[in-house]
Please model this.
Amino acid sequence: MLITGDHLFYYYRCPRRPFLDAQGTAAHNPGESPLHEKLNRDHHDLRTQLLRDYAWQAPQADPQDWAAAHTQTLALMAQGVAAIHRGVLTLTPAPGITYLGRPDLLVRRPGASRWGNWHYQAVDIRLGQRPKPEYQGVAAFHAWLLSELQDTWPTTGLLWLPGPRSVRVRLADAVPAMHKTLVACTAILQAEQAPEVFISRSRCQLCPWLGDCSQVAQAQQHLSLVPGVTALRYAELRQLGIATIPQLASQSPHYLDHQTSFGLATVTRLVRQAQAIQRGHALPLGPFPALPQEPVELFFDIEAEPHLDCVYLHGVLVVKAGRPAFHGFLAPHPQGEGEVWQQFVDLVLTYPAAPIFHFCPFETQTIQRLGDRYGTPRLKVQAILNRCVDLHAWVTRHVVLPVDNYSLKAIARWLGFRWRHPRADGAQSIWWYNQWLSSQNPSYLEALQVYNEDDCQATYRLKTWLDDFHQATAQSPLQEESG
Ligand code: SF4
Model:
């Protein structure tokens, strides 16, 4: 059995992932998301940047032929080359088990080892802003493999994070923790059955097995499909024998309130949420209030590139008497941020009574930030903020929907809205903008404007539905409206 650094890395995120990676075939693998592709590109760019600083050599063997690549890596280490890229480290501690690590770089350091008066330290490139447990775990794994192969420990593990900046990993803490995790990961890989599925939006959205796991979860009516059922809450519900959506939907909130630690408001919402999914209907959480209604309404969405600290697009859909017109204020270069901010301010001040609908708090936070950055009078900024209405907060406060998460994409798709770029997301927009900056190819700008306009249109669709839902519940308070 071959146990790799990738198995260990993904085990930290989800015990099911290494099992599927080891057992699955490409035919079952549905491929990567645009976000995953962007992360691969970012990893490639960061690696290119790092490698520029080293006179590195690489094993010539086919990377798939890891035994030959390992032998060549050891030969390069024995020669004492300055750095090794695509090195392969393996260890067979017992018959039938081989550990395999592929650090991004091995860097020669002073200090005795079996090779002579030098040894090697592994460098791992990661894309998070902080040294997450899985980063440190794999760094410790590589350090351990090195210690066995060169008869000495590197002083630390080393992570290379965006910035770029380097972060040292304290091996005295990280290695014992890694060994515990490695034992658990090995047991999973030796098991016959896959670990239980648990769909979690934050960790599953990047996983190529999401399609397969979603099918399994759907077939089981698994509770992880209910927004708000976290792994900790699921453990408590399982103790009570509640493992499926129908089982949760049939519970009394008051009974669950006594049996769990969640609190009455949370259990009431969870039960209602399970009922909404089971019935395929939206359900109000109480009296359903009306949203602001004006002859002119604005629907607002921002695109920003955090690495450039730049808001490059303010998209505003102006709806007058039911007729929408889109305005996209786009900065063709990051220095144009102030100009497009002013264009946005000028437009919204043209309609002083129009409510500004948006989805999630990012837009209002950004208005505040850009107002400070460009010295916009505070009263003016406050007047704009007072008109903003966050539809995400509105939805999650007043209604449950038959969706598995409350992103704009999930809600608007349930309402039948379709994006012209079906797989695009915020990360894709950032990638398009960076491609435009480097290539000046206008098709990238067109793509990100279309995506932004569709986000504004989706927000408009949601607002229209909320108005209709309000009317339906006002006319018949006990009626359960469908989407
Ligand atoms: S989709 Fe989610 S549950 Fe399935 S393997 Fe990936 S991370 Fe785990």
Remarks:
- Residues 26-30, 479-483 have pLDDT under 50 and may be disordered.
- The chain has three domains: 2-190, 221-279, 296-475.
- The longest helix spans residues 442-475.
- Residues 140 and 175 are 5 Å apart (CA to CA).
